[in-house]
Write a structure and sequence with these properties.
By secondary structure, the chain is an alpha/beta fold. Helices cover 35% and strands 25% of the residues. Bound molecules: zinc ion and fe (iii) ion (FE).
């Protein structure tokens, strides 16, 4: 069993730290260390030794701290093959398994391109580390791929079990919910989610992890085939979106300017 701890970084990033839940072994792994400072502080405070670094994609707010961390402790660095990840030792792609022996943890790699060319997610122990692809009630911007690719990547993630905990890279939930309510105004689960998220943020707590069940019920980017989402996309376009990829592209574009 792992305990997964969010370390806030920059304005709204989370660096996810994995450690033994029984706290007997003093090892930790980190996902997407955009800066080294918060990781070093946490490891020192908790008396933990770093054993692995996992990167989902090459953006600086996810990999900016890697060089400094490996200079301190030489550990394996897992990351997408085909992206410039600093100090990368284990390039990974679809179907690869990664093992973190010191934490008795194994994760499968899912390739989820769209936000970046070779973005990956790590899935295991009912947990999904998905960087900037799937966000709580939203999704990342499509920078290096196409709308078709991004929709296929989100669809791949949406096929995981309902109970899967979603650990994404940013605290964007409230803004995402606000947009989702514009797209899907009568969704009562979405309204309930907004209440829960507001309370958490008011108490200074992360809204993450969410679950995939929750995402499937409320995240408009996973609901591009729902009539209400199609209708909202059509309204935004002033035309009829021909297929789910066009619906996805329309609401993604709408969100960019929201
Ligand atoms: Zn990014
Ligand atoms: Fe990011």
């Amino acid at each position: 069993m792992l305990e997964i701890v969010p370390l806030p970084a920059f304005q709204d990033n989370y660096i996810w730290t994995l450690r033994a839940a029984d706290r007997k072994t003093r090892h930790a792994a980190v996902v997407d260390p955009g800066e080294a400072g918060p990781v070093k502080e946490y490891l020192a405070r908790e008396g933990l030794t770093l054993v692995a670094i996992l990167a989902t994609h090459h953006h600086p707010d996810h990999v900016g701290g890697i060089a400094e961390l490996v200079a301190m402790t030489k550990v394996p660095v897992f990351g997408p093959k085909g992206e410039p990840i600093p100090a990368l030792t284990h390039p990974v792609g679809q179907g690869d398994k990664i093992e973190i022996g010191a934490l008795a943890a194994e994760f499968s790699v899912l390739e989820i391109p769209g936000h970046t060319r070779a973005h990956v997610a790590y899935y295991g122990l009912e947990s999904l580390f998905c960087g900037d692809t799937l966000f709580a009630c939203g999704c990342g911007r499509v920078f290096e791929g196409t709308a078709e690719q991004m929709l296929a990547s989100l669809t791949k993630l949406a096929a995981l079990p309902d109970a899967t905990k979603v650990y994404c890279g940013h605290e964007y939930t409230l803004a995402n919910i606000k947009f989702a309510r514009a797209v899907d105004p009568h969704n009562s689960e979405l309204a309930a989610r907004e209440e829960r998220a507001k309370k958490l943020r008011a108490a200074g707590k992360p809204t993450l992890p969410s679950t995939l069940g929750e995402e499937r019920a409320t995240n408009p980017f996973l609901r591009c085939a729902e009539p209400v989402v199609v209708e909202s996309a059509n309204k935004y376009l002033g035309a009829r979106a021909a297929d789910p990829a066009r619906v996805f592209a329309a609401i993604r574009e709408w969100k960019n300017g929201f």
